[in-house]
Amino acid sequence: MSKLMETIKFFRSYGVKCDEKSVEEWLSNTSSTEDVNNQVCEGDLYNFNDWCRRKGTAYEEGIDGQLRIARLLEEIKELKKEISDLKDQKIDLEDQLGIPPF
After folding, report:
1. Structural domain boundaries, residue 16
2. Which tens digits make up the pLDDT trace of 27-61?
3. Taking Cα atoms as reference points, which of 43, 53, 1 lies closest to residue 22?
4. Whole-number Å distance between alpha carbons of 42 and 11
5. Apex 74 CA angle, 64 and 53, nearest 5
6. How many other β-carbons are positioned within 10 Å of the β-carbon of residue 40?
7. Is the pTM of this model over 0.85?
8. Helix residue ranges per DSSP H, the chain
9. C-alpha to C-alpha distance for 63 and 53, rounded to whole angstroms
10. 3-state SS, residue 101
11. What's the total number of domains in the chain?
12. Is 61 a domain residue?
């Protein structure tokens, strides 16, 4: 069984939904598995999960500073919009409860 298929089978045995392309990319971006016998182990599962969480974010390994800054600026923009939406919701809820604004 190939390393790719062995890894996918192992991850899926833990209930992880993963596609062949992402596992293949992860394998090519990592030096090796954590196990000394080069077997897929639970630590690899955690590393894969962490890699998936960071992929496409400012915290992705191997990206240059300019891309990191661009991603952080986009994240800030999204967070500011979320804050604005939450403030609007708060005002609406206060109105519904009859709480006067300060």
Report:
1. 3-97
2. 988 866 665 567 889 999 999 999 999 999 999 98
3. 53
4. 9
5. 65
6. 20
7. no
8. 3-13, 20-29, 42-54, 65-97
9. 15
10. coil
11. 1
12. yes
